[in-house]
Each structure stands twice: as C-alpha cells, then as structure tokens.
Amino acid sequence: MSDSSEQDRRAEQAFREAFTRAAATVPPAPLQVRRAPRRRWVPAMIAAAAVLLIASTAVVALRGGPGDVGPATVRPGQSNAEDPAREGPATVGTDPAVVPSPGPVPDGWRSVTFRDVSVAVPGEWGDGVAPDESWCAESGGPTGNGAYVAVDSTLLASALILCGSSAPPAPEGFGPDPEAGWRPHLRFADLARTGTEALQDGVTTYEGWTLRVRTLGTVQVALLTDAATEPVAEQVMASLTRTERSAEGCDTRSPVQASGQVSPESDGIADLRPEQVDRVALCQYLRGADGPGLMGAQVVSGEEAAGLVRAIQDSPTGVGPDSPGTCAWGVEDGGDTAVVLRPFGSAEDAGLDTGLGDIHFYFDGCAGNGFDDGSVRRQLTQDTCARIFGDPGTTDRVFWTSLSAKTARLCVPPSR
C-alpha cells in the first residue's frame, strides 16, 4: 500500500471514530415518522453516526436558507478568479414598491410566491428541491429533465457527506453539483435568515448556461437556464414583484406564523354552507418568522373544496392527535410550520377579498394539532388529512419534514 493510500485510510478511520464518539453523546429523540428520501423533503435532523467520506472538497453544513442560493463549491487550491465577466447592468439594491397582489400571468403560466415575492413561470415547470453540497447522496430531487421551481428549503438539512468532483469549479451559483447534473430551475433565498449567503445580482454565463440573480427586499431570486429555457428567462425575471398577497389569496405574512399557536379573528365555520365554497387557498407559513413568512400556496376548487370544509365541520371537537410527552422542556407545541385554510365564494376575488373565514391548521407539533376556526377547535381525522395532504399519487399540498407517529398514521398514505 502506498504512503498516500495509507494516509487516506488513517484519515478516514479517524473521522469515523470521531463521529461515532459524537453520536454516542446524542440522546435518543422521540419517535418521529419522517418523509421517505424519494419525496421532496428530507428529515430536519441529521444522524451523526452515518458519515460517508468522498474526496476532500468542502465540509457540508446545514442549509442556510431556502432554494439553496449560495456559493458554488470550490476545491482547495482553486478560486473563481477567472469567472466569466457578468453581462448587462446589475440590479443590486432593487427594491420595488409592494403591490396588493401580483398581476395576471400569461396563458399556460402559473404564479409562485415565496415570502413577499411573486414570480410567473411556465405551467409545466414543476416543484423540486435544489441540490446542495450533499448532491452525491441525494435521492429526493426532482424527477425528469424539465425545469422546476425549488421549494422552500428553510427547514431542510444537508447530510454529513463530503462530495467531490474532478470537474473544474463553476462560477458561484451554478453548482454545487457538477454540470452533468444541472437542470434549469428557479430558486429563492431568504436573506433575512442567519447564515444565508447572497450571490451578486446580475447575469453570468458559463458553458451554455445562464444564471440571473435579482434581490427584492430580503428575498434573492436566482434563475438558471439552458438553451431550451433561455427564451423565457427575461419574461420570468420581468414578472418579479413584491406583494402583500399571493395569486391564490394568501397573505405574505400572517398571525399564524407566530411562535405560539393563535386563533384566527373569525366567527367560525359552523354556519358556513359547504356549497357556498368555490375554492380554498392552502397557505403555509414558517413559524417564528419576523417578516413575511409565506412558504408556499395551493388551491383546491369545486366539490373538492366543499368536501374539505364539510370534513372539517364533521371532525370531533378538541385537539389532537397529540403526544405532549414528547415535547421538549419549555416548548408549548414544537411545530415548525402552520397552514391557513381560506375558503372563498364564487364571487370573491382572491387578490382583494378576505374569504369566508380563516381556519388555522396545526399538524407537525407535539401538542395542539388540529383546526381552529376562531370559535371551535377540531381534531385531525383521516378524512381531513387525505384532503389536505393529498391522496396517494397526487401532488403534495403541504410540506413537512417530520410528524409524530400518531399524526402520521392519520395523515400519511402508506405509499409516501
């Protein structure tokens, strides 16, 4: 065995022993059911004992912000000094006025809102998770070869894995995975969150790919395009706007994003006739956010919307399923996110009207799970969960990283 190989073996053994010692000091966590790796989201907790060493590139840490907008990986001894010159005028400091709601989108396009920034993208662009520094181990990324919009990754964590590549380093923002794995996508970063690194605003080209970056308020938007998606790039970036409400009818900041659970200012839905409901906006928020906390939005319409309201009305009163014994000391409920369900009538404008009465939905905590319409609290049931989380084979309507075992039995179909 060569001296170099022997040194590598000893280094690997030292790392394994160090992480094994560290893992032994971590107390066991309460039983949690976590989303399978093939889904969009990965567990929010890292298992310290499982470490794979692959080359010596960069040490992986927790993601600092959503969408994985951050510097590209640069291997030791190299830099980005020879990056291609940026094209066109930079848009540093762009901070347009906040409008009440985004404008109409072109036919066949859809509107996406993150925090208080809305953007229009082609309708065929799906949702996915942008790769991070642990790209060599990820199996939950978007499928297919088409463009996608990266979901809010604030609560996601990177695996403790060192990924390496023999390819030359790309300019910041193009990686961190090698060029062979790149896909056109739009991603966001919340610069208000500690640890989120910003890219320089402007336009950069590299090996047939183009990266456009623009900052609006505390949100940075990055669009990576190839030759096939470049024709719509300017139209996508031109649609960026700061807004108080999403196209679905979700406020970009909400009382439900408070650290503690709160009730909506509503008279309740006991007297609401389900047939009055034309659609329901599902608005998910990051709890504890000081500024705009909207993570994403979905809409259910027609009979599906009426059925959702009816199922909530028929749910037993009270809260649950709960596991208060698993709450950390001093923690009220331990949830990371919350959802506002906002029913609208057929004559209401989602951009202007306030709906027929908000319902707060808590589901990922150790206590206080269920629905709160401002008058009555109701428990989660298998029927309500299926209508909110989506049936097997359908698109996820809310995002989650971990659930209590009791909640998972009700809300997570076996195929997920």
Catalogue the unreliable spans: 25-93
Question: What is the element string, with H for helices and E for strands?
Answer: HEEEEEEEEEEEEHEEEHEEEEHEH
Care to count the β-strands? 20
The side-by-side strand order for the widest beta sheet comes to 6-7-9-12-11-10
- Through-space gap between termini: 46 Å
Shape descriptor reads globular
User: How would you describe the oligomerization state of the chains in this entry?
Assistant: single chain
Radius of gyration: 23 Å
On the 0 to 100 scale, the average pLDDT is: 78
Distinctive features:
416 residues; alpha+beta; 5 helices
Description:
A hairpin with a 2-residue loop joins strand 11 (209-216) and strand 12. The chain starts with a helix and ends in a 5-residue tail after the last helix. It folds into 2 domains: 3-243, no CATH class; 255-411, no CATH class. The chain has 5 helices and 20 strands. It has helices at residues 3-24, 233-238, 302-313, 382-389, 405-411; strands spanning 32-34, 52-53, 98-99, 109-114, 117-122, 126-128, 148-150, 161-162, 185-190, 202-206, 209-216, 219-225, 241-243, 277-286, 294-301, 337-345, 359-362, 370-372, 377-378, 402-404.
What is the secondary structure topology, with strand pairs?
Elements: H1 3-24, E1 32-34, E2 52-53, E3 98-99, E4 109-114, E5 117-122, E6 126-128, E7 148-150, E8 161-162, E9 185-190, E10 202-206, E11 209-216, E12 219-225, H2 233-238, E13 241-243, E14 277-286, E15 294-301, H3 302-313, E16 337-345, E17 359-362, E18 370-372, E19 377-378, H4 382-389, E20 402-404, H5 405-411
Parallel strand pairs: 2-8, 3-13, 6-7, 7-9
Antiparallel strand pairs: 1-20, 4-5, 5-13, 9-12, 10-11, 11-12, 14-15, 14-16, 16-17, 17-18, 18-19
Helix pairs in contact: 3-4
